[in-house]
Prior knowledge:
Layout: E1 6-8, E2 13-16, E3 19-22, E4 36-43, H1 49-62, E5 70-77, E6 83-90, H2 93-101, H3 103-115, E7 118-124
Antiparallel strand pairs: 1-5, 2-3, 4-6, 4-7, 5-6
Helix pairs in contact: 1-3
Amino acid sequence: MKIAKAYATPSSIIKSNYSIKFSDMKTIIEKDAALLTLINVITVEPEKQSELLKLLVEATNKVFNKLPGFVSANFHSSLDGTKIVNYAQWKSEGDFKNMQQHEEAKVYMGKATKLAIKLEPAFYTVEHVNHI
Length: 132
């Protein structure tokens, strides 16, 4: 059985009185966090899942995590090999839009688009979190 993989970029968010300081950022899922959340469900041929996942991690490590406003990126691969889910966070929609105009980011996004069957990105808000 193939085990699902998750990749996260190194980071940490320090919260104090609901203000967020971005230093060593990491993924935080919290209703009142002032972050833009992008969830992208990517459909891929099973034989290309590993290649696409490697490309996305490389793009994140070499480009995205060095851009202003980047907070975190997490990648999950489906057990059947047909999906990759990217759960990413940015400080603002403006930061995300600036990333889309970055030349190196465009190159990686173009390569990812060619490997994928379908990309379904959307912005989300956190409505509820339940922790034990």
